Amino acid sequence: MKLKMLSFLAVILFAGSSFENSSMLIQSFGYGHCYDLAESIEQDAMDGGNSAEFSYNLGTAMMEDCINDVNNAAAEYWATH
Amino acid sequence: MKLRFFVLFISFFGFNFSVNAQYIIVDYKTIPNGDFIDGKDKNNNSSNKDLLNEAFKVVRLLTMRLKASQNESYYWATTDMNSDVDELHFKLAKVFVESNSEYRCDLKNDLTSRWCEMFGRNFIINNKISDLNWTLTNEKKEIGKYTCYKAYCSYEIVNPSGTFKKNVTAWYTSEVPYRFGPKGYSGLPGLILELTDNKITYVVKNISFYKEDEIIGDLPKGELITQEVLDELSVNAMQNRRPKRKNKK
User: How far does the signal peptide extend, from start to end residue (chain B) (predicted)?
Assistant: First the structure.
């Protein structure tokens, strides 16, 4: 019975530490800089006299590419760890 | 003498063929003029500037196509990716030439319509061709075998950064009597062989004349909208990304 209890606790502790690690990793693979990049590109495009529609499309293209890069980096990390 | 007769015969035949054609297909090459972000724009950060200017050069690899009958035209981007090009640069270059838009012009109804796809929705923006207010000049130059005349017009862009005046220059030839050109610019006395708008010059690469009758297709379906409302939606969409970004951090 004690052994069962100990095994259960070990599983819980392991799961807890894995969750803690994974949440740290998710944070390091965040998309925040992609939104910053899009905003900065959109502002540059509008300052250059382009329409809001065009600027949004340019920002979107940048953001999509950045998000893909983050997803690929995260996938690669999880495949090798 | 024989040679002169031959040249006369060929020029007459060639001209006659273009006049009798029922429709034409015109390919335009796109040439970037200078940098997308000039050195004088001091507010932007240099990594954005370098990336956008590099991508702007890739515009040169794209081709736009116009199909026109006497009264109607359809204009779109043909964007096959060149394998030597960086994927992001190519994606941005397609944005520069507005490859998400297609144009249809109808001279009889004085209508130029643009279809575009944004926010996962399809839109159609209608404008009058006569609203372009072209100014015709006597200035001329040769493009290929055609004598072209210069015309110009302008339009305004209003965005949250301010109001900007944009000038458009077109070189058209009355020797090809199809009154259309790139990006819905039309209504001049002949085909536009060269057009400069917003730092990109569209230059004719090839004109094919066809004798068969051809129906110029309709644009895909879309919600009717004005440019002003579409710009407002775009500004809102840009602002909506900001709280989303904060939540993700």
Answer: 1-21
